[in-house]
Amino acid sequence: LKTRFYVIFGITSRCQPNINNSKQVSPTSTRTHQDRPCKMVEFKCPPMSLNPVVWGPPSTAAELEGQDILQGYLDYVDHLDKFPLSRVGKICDFTISGQRFLEQRGKGMKGKAGGKGKAQQPIAPAAKDDEGFSLVDTRTGPGKSSGKGRSTTNNRTKGRGKGLNVNYQEGILGQKQKSNYFNNNQNSSKGKGKGKGGPRRNVPSFKEWSVETKTEWELKQEIMLHSLSKLQVDHRLVEFKDLLWAGKLHNFNRVFDRVTTKTSMPVKRFQDLQFFSVTTSDDPHLQQFLTEDEEASVIATDDALAVLVAAARSMYSWDLVITKLQGKLIIDTRYGSQVNGLSVNETAQEPPSNEDKESINSPLKLSQEASCINQNFSQMVLDHQRPAKEMPEPNPFEEEDEEGSSAASGAYRYRKITIPGRPKADDPREAAPVTIIVRTEVNCRVPDAPENKGYCSVKALNEYEPKPNYSWRNSLEAQRGACLATEVKNNSFKLGRWTAQAILAGCDTLKLGYVTRTNPSDNSSHLVLGVQTHMTDGFADQIGLTRNNMYGILRSIIDLVQGWDDGKYLILKDPTKSVLRIYEVPWDSFDSEEEEEEEEEEDQELDEDGNVAPTQN
């Protein structure tokens, strides 16, 4: 080097060193700036101010009075608010700098290796270990879903009051939709899965909670659903007694037994009929039996009891309300509860997706479609050429002021069921028998059946999306057993409910109809492809529902609630786990929903067809 640069506090000195003293400089020669001798610049330490409070420079100009401080230093102190104090005097971390260098170097080497090697991966910082464990394998496991299905939306479910019909025909036709559980769309839970947004296998796609729990609710009991299968009561000791028949009963039309896929029949619509779904607390006969019969300790409907019996088969969330007052239990459904609706392919490997809630194949639309089909099918298969058998009491829910409409055909059978206790039980309450008064439904009678026999329950299964390799049109005639087995697998909860309802109602026969869409893209037009007849007991054994287990579940839940104090309890099914939880809720819970619904109906203006008139701006 011929030149050196000394840069000290902004002062630069350039000099020519004498390496070997071989060159002599004449005294008479003119010296250039390169031949001048070098002189080190003096380093003078500036005066430092003392801050006895904290480490660092003074924070105010008042502390600098009388001290000889450089102007640049003073200027920095005046603008100290622009620079975070945490960054003043911070030690340089060469480890982090090295990691950033390796990361940038790895990115820069991508595409330059020519396939001969991989770019160096950046070193990930060690994760904080709060529990004293270290993660060994960071690879994502297969089939994991992200998020939990619980929603934080606080929506109220609004139902219908006493005596109002629930006609699903209107919702399908695009008119005013009934307020039910599926209309209260809470935040949907989406997870990761294979494919492009396709449904996950063996995981419910409709994971909303039917009721949003509150922190002040006390959790009384948590029941694992798989434990319900172990509960047994000898069904031969269960006693039945008819208390009251109401409504009317038609005979089944045997023409539908001969319907095939080639002679399919369109589903008729019965928009002029009234269909009812009345809760336990709104039934006047059940209230009367509970007060007059001293032996009666529980009142309920067949819908509510059937849900408890088939609870282990369910995937979606549902809830029931049990009110205990003076040792009496009222098993009821909330206003607008989903228990009154029907699910479609709830237990299938590929359940309906809820990503597009406006799609006709969403759980909401399919539930309305299935309910509409069952209402129409229950009236379509009746023999209207022969007069119906009138029961001792008329339909208790029919409204006389409705002009041009009548109640749908069907009979309500009020039964008294006595479940025996366990003689060896230590608790006297468990050793005593339990008497349940239940309201059941009978759809029709089998023609030429003996008296008090031949009662029939009519239900319909619906196909909404035929597949190229499997459809009822192609497989129902040749593979009836395979079609039924597929439906038992895909709709286990719904078929379990229907079977339990038929057993409680004393129906010897169960008629299952197979209904499909006329056009897969139209959910308002359907065809009946066939009707299968099953004996109720044989069909129950076929789907794995035994009478012993059925009465054992009812007896165990009743004994559990009877051991608690008087109050209101909520039975809630977890949509993400096979768990049944029972909460104690305040007395006024779910009562305000009915009042709000009635106030809204009074304030709304209706048009000529009875629908809500649009608001005019």
How would you describe this structure to a colleague?
The protein is of the alpha+beta class and 617 residues long. Helices cover 21% and strands 20% of the residues. It is built from 13 helices and 19 strands. The strands form 3 sheets. It has a 15-stranded mixed β-sheet that branches. Strands 1-2 form a two-stranded antiparallel sheet. Strands 6-11 form a two-stranded parallel sheet. A hairpin with a 2-residue loop joins strand 16 and strand 17. The protein starts with a strand and ends in a 14-residue tail after the last helix. The relative contact order is 0.14.
How do you describe this structure in short?
The chain has 13 helices and 19 strands. By secondary structure, the protein is of the alpha+beta class.
Give me some keywords for this one:
two-stranded antiparallel sheet; 13 helices; 15-stranded mixed β-sheet; alpha+beta
Ordered list of secondary-structure elements with their pairings:
Layout: E1 4-8, E2 11-15, H1 71-78, H2 94-108, H3 169-172, E3 218-224, E4 239-251, E5 265-266, E6 273-274, H4 284-292, E7 298-301, H5 302-309, E8 319-325, E9 328-332, H6 363-380, E10 389-390, E11 406-407, E12 410-419, H7 428-431, E13 434-442, E14 444-445, E15 455-463, H8 472-475, H9 480-490, H10 492-505, E16 509-519, E17 522-535, H11 536-542, H12 547-562, E18 567-573, E19 579-585, H13 592-603
Parallel strand pairs: 4-14, 6-11, 7-9, 7-13, 15-16
Antiparallel strand pairs: 1-2, 3-19, 4-10, 4-12, 5-17, 8-9, 8-18, 12-13, 14-15, 16-17, 18-19
Helix pairs in contact: 5-10, 10-11
